[in-house]
Amino acid sequence: MSRLISEWARALWVWVFRRQIPELTAGSMKIRSTLFIVGVTFLSCAVSRANILNMTYEDDGDGAVVCPNGWDGNTGALHIYGAEMQPGAAHILGTITTDTTVDPTLTLASSIDNDTGLGWTAYRVNVVMSTPFTIVTGSPSVSSPLGDWYVADTIAPTLQASGVYAGQYEGTIDFSQGTTLAPGATLDFSYAIHFAGSTDYSFTQEMIPTTVPEPASLSLLVGALLAGKRLAGRRS
Predict the structure, then answer these.
(1) Closest Cα to residue 106, out of 224, 231, 195?
(2) Can you tell me the distance from the alpha carbon of 98 to that of 52, in angstroms, rounded to the nearest whole number?
(3) For residues 194 and 45, what is the distance between their CA atoms, to the nearest angstrom?
């Protein structure tokens, strides 16, 4: 597709500058300059972005998050659906295929169900790739709960010198709540990334909720502790 656009752009370039420009009068320099700028801009746009041909995602199999094996073709956005089953870090693994090595923009949107049995008060998303990438400024957002949760911080990707992701690039997006996300609710968030240098990429989306017991669970826990204390007092 990009090759076809490129050839069409070159043909337009030839038509404008070899056939139309000579017909302009000597007093039409301003028009000529404008056409030149438009031609250069169009040609640059036509060949400077890769097309995303294919994307896949799946959970890593450890049970922390469960999602269907997803696929999307020939688009600049990938929507990930999953259910987070337990507290701690959960991982979704993805692949991206492009038609050239120049920099595409990919939007990653996620709908993650809270099936941990605990409330969420914050949510950290770590994005990891083996190639340098950037998180597009202003792109992180929360669509549900709308107007309640928000983007608290975005940390630009850096090369990791140690740890699990040593030798890879990791960026972070922190989401925070106005109201605790209850068990059974869904967190919808998205962000966009730029990357380049290959036609085959892989990424990891690591998701870490900050959890608190739900009020009902907390009441049961307090009740159990008080009952245990009373029983211990009787025995003494």
Answers:
(1) 195
(2) 4
(3) 16
Identify the bridge partners of residue 144 per DSSP, sorted by sequence position: 188
Q: pLDDT tens for residues 90-127?
A: 999 999 999 999 989 999 999 999 999 999 999 999 99
For residues 61 and 93, give the distance between their C-alpha atoms in angstroms, rounded to a whole number. Answer: 10
Q: What is the identity of the amino acid at 63?
A: G
Residue 95 forms beta bridges with which residues? 56, 202
Tokens of 120: 């969420």
Mapped to the 3 state alphabet, what secondary structure does 74-140 carry?
CCCEEEEEEEECCCCCEEEEEEEEECCCCCCEEEEEEEEEECCCCEEEEEEEEEEECCCEEECCCCC
pLDDT tens by residue, 165-215: 999 999 999 999 989 999 999 999 999 999 999 999 999 999 999 999 976
Cβ atoms within 10 Å, residue 192: 19
Tokens 């709308």 belong to residue: 146
